[in-house]
Amino acid sequence: MLRPELPIATERLILRTATAADLDEMYAYKSRPEVCRYLPYEPMSRDQVAERLAGPWARTELTEVNQGLNLSVEDKASGRLLGDVVLFWRDAESRSGEIGYVFSPSAAGHGYATEAARALLRLGFEQLSLHRITARIDARNAASARVLGRLGMRREALHLEDLWFKNEWSDTVVYAMLEHEWRSRTTALGDSVNLGAGRP
Ligand SMILES: CC(C)(COP(=O)(O)OP(=O)(O)OC[C@H]1O[C@@H](n2cnc3c(N)ncnc32)[C@H](O)[C@@H]1OP(=O)(O)O)[C@@H](O)C(=O)NCCC(=O)NCCS
C-alpha cells in the first residue's frame, strides 16, 4: 500500500486529488487530438472525462501494483487547472514506478510540466520509497523528451517498433532515474531529502 500525503505544493503549483470540479478544464485539453497524439487513448468526450473523475482513476492511494495515482495540477496563483500527472506503482519487491503527464496547450512553455514531474519524482523517491522510476515515451515526442532531460532522467533504451500504436508501429524511448541518483541530484541542489519515510 502506498499512501501519499496530499496535496503537494511546489513553487508555482499544487498537485492534488482530481475532483468532479475539474471536468470543464480537463475536458478542454483531453478532447484535443494534438494533446492525445502520443497518449494511449483517443481524444475524450466530456462523458469519458466525467466517468474518469468519478471512478478509480481519481484514487488517492495505491493498493495494488499497476494502479496509477493521477493528480490534478493547478496554478497556485490562479487556481486554474494546467494539466494532470500520474505515478504508476509498477513492482512492489523491486520498488519501481513510472511517471506520465499531460498539460493543456495553454499552459505550455512555462516549465510547469517539468516542475510537476519533479514533484512526482520527489513523491515517488522520498514519500513512497521507490528505488527506480521510469518514463516511456514515443520517440517522436520531442517536448516530452526535453521534460525528462531537464529532470535529469537517463535515456536508457530505444525499442524499435515495439508498439502497434494508433494504426502504425511506434518506437519507445525508456528513461529512468534511481533513488541514489535522485538523492545525489537533490543534495547537489541543496534540497532536503527524507529517504526513510513511508517505506512500503
Ligand atoms: C509533454 C508536455 C507536457 C511538455 O510540455 P512543455 O510545455 O514543453 O513542458 P514544460 O511545461 O516543462 O515547459 C518547458 C518549456 O518551457 C520553457 N520554460 C519557460 N519558463 C520555464 C521555467 N521557469 N522553467 C522551465 N522551463 C521553462 C522551457 O524552455 C521549455 O521550452 P522548450 O521545451 O521549447 O525548451 C506537453 O507537450 C504535453 O502535455 N503533451 C501532450 C501529452 C503528452 O504527450 N504527454 C507525454 C506523454 S509521455
Please tell me about this protein's structure:
By secondary structure, the chain is an alpha+beta fold. The chain contains 6 helices and 8 strands, in the order E-E-H-H-H-E-E-E-H-E-H-E-E-H. The protein has an 8-stranded mixed beta sheet with strand order 1-2-3-4-5-6-8-7, sandwiched between helices. Helix 1 packs across helix 3. It is globular. Bound molecules: coenzyme A. Coenzyme A binds next to strand 5, helix 4 and helix 5. The site of coenzyme A (COA) has 20 residues, from strand 5, helix 4 and helix 5.
- The CA-CA distance between the termini, in Å, is 6 Å
Topology, number of strands: 8
Query: What name is given to the CATH topology?
Result: Aminopeptidase
Largest sheet: 8 strands, mixed
Note the beta-strand portion: 25-35%
Gross CATH architecture: 3-Layer(aba) Sandwich
Give the tally of structural domains. 1
Assign an overall shape: globular
Summed over residues and divided by their number, the pLDDT gives a mean of 94
Unreliable stretches, pLDDT < 50, 5 or more residues? 192-200
Q: Helical segment tally?
A: 6
List all distinct small molecules, including ions and cofactors, that are bound in this structure: coenzyme A
